[in-house]
Design a protein that fits this description.
The chain has twelve helices and no strands. It has 217 residues and is mainly α. It is elongated. It starts with a helix and ends with a helix.
Amino acid sequence: MKRLYLISIVILLSLLLFSCQTEKDYSSLSVAENKKGLEAAEVYEEFLSKNEDEKVRWNYVYSLYEAEEYDVALEEIDKGIALYPDNIRFLYIKSLVYRNTLSLDKEKETLICIEILNPGNIEVRKRLVEVYDALGEKEEAIREAKSILLYDSKDLVALEYLSRDSQFYSLLYSSLKPEEENAASEEEAAIPNEEENLEPREEEIGTENGEENFVEQ
């Protein structure tokens, strides 16, 4: 009886010690809040060496990506995918790594996986159009652009791409593109063909307002 009592005490103390250690580890993560890149990654790596946690692993991967440590990031991303296959964010950031390293074939493969898991993500489909086009896979790019229109029949990115080789989509795109673009096109059409010495008015000189708008965007 006394032996069982001692064993119970040992188990209880072990649980308390583990709980305290876990709390200590999580509190240490607060140090990473004011850090970025490799400095933050070191904090998360230290935590993961003792405990596995989905959010911490994501933050670790993102910090590596932020620091442009792409080789290490890919290794850790693959670990994240293996441990948390339902967390699609690991695939998203993997595609961004491949984009930044100009690995278009691998980016395409990753984007296709994301598309299968989350078919309603229009931004992924738009990026696939760009990747297919850059790889010279025009038929696939057209197919992908048309698939976007199934979700949003007025998507200007898809319509603009399809308008390059289709009069139908060209007319549709022209009718839907922003009014300022249409106005700019009409203004260009109104410019006479012959060269003229047109002096700008004083208020037209300079681009201060245009530069401010660009910076805000």
